[in-house]
Amino acid sequence: MKWILFDKDGTLIYFDESWNRIGMQLVDDFITEYRHDINDINEAYRALGIIEGKIQPGTVMASGSLQDIINAFNNLTNKNVSQWAQERSQALIDQRVPDNKRVEGVYSTLKTLKSRGYKLGIVTSDTKKGLDQFLKATETTQFFDVVIPTEAHAVEKPNPDVLKPLFDQFDVEPYEVMMVGDTPNDILTAINAKLGYSLAVLTGVGEKEDFDQANYIANDANEILTILDEVK
Questions:
Q1: Cβ atoms of 224 and 109 closer than 8 Å
Q2: Which contacts qualify for 196-203: CB closer than 8 Å, 24 or more apart?
């Protein structure tokens, strides 16, 4: 194994509650904007994974990609709301104030991985602005050889093309790469891109039962140091 790719939110930092606030606001705005096209508003909230004002784990609003969310919106309105959803989501993200609280011990883990000669990267559904804020707040810029954000209209996990910047810039084969993340989409990215291994962590939105396709499941990203001893 030569490369380790990390998701950001819920993997390197504890899940950022600002994402939940954005998700809730996006759904509220969607319901308001398209209320005349929705048959049952209460059922629409439930279908999107919101119960008693909270986003439930394992639902589309908890761990789905923006395209997954748009598909759910389209199903509820029987129309294409893609442009509205993309623009509103981007506007909310641009206003976001992230938490960026590092998972305990992860700074030391990244330092150890670099000392062992691994190349490290970040693949996130956050924007470049959010990624830059994370790197500055956590003081981890020096550890990463490639960082891949997701801007508006770009491909998203689990589309394997999201890893194109890695394979375009570096001489590396998919089997030499491990993906570490906290959602099923992270694991599916590894599968779709035919990466060597995938590691699911439980510091984010995913539940253990969501990760039956992962090669490994760990409580947090720090356990990768032990796991890598097994995959050499």
A1: yes
A2: 196/1, 196/231, 197/1, 197/231, 199/223, 199/224, 199/227, 201/10, 201/11, 203/10, 203/11, 203/14, 203/15, 203/103
Angstrom distance (rounded) from CA 134 to CA 76: 34
- Model pLDDT for residues 49-61, shown as the tens digit of each residue: 999 888 888 889 9
Q: Considering the entire predicted model, what is its pTM?
A: 0.75
**CA-to-CA dists, residue 81 to 30, 59, 68, 86, 146, angstroms:** 9, 20, 12, 9, 33
CB 35 within 8 A of CB 224: no
The dotted CATH code for 3-15+99-231 is 3.40.50.1000
How many angstroms from the chain centroid is the CA of residue 214? 15
Whether 6 contacts 12, CB under 8 Å: yes
Q: Give residue limits of the domains in the chain.
A: 3-15+99-231, 17-95
Q: Are strands 50-51 and 54-55 parallel, antiparallel or unpaired?
A: antiparallel
198 φ/ψ angles, rounded to the nearest 5 degrees: -135, 145
Give how far the C-alpha of residue 181 lies from the chain's centroid of Cα atoms, to the nearest Å: 7
pLDDT per residue as tens digits for the range 199-218: 999 998 888 999 999 999 99
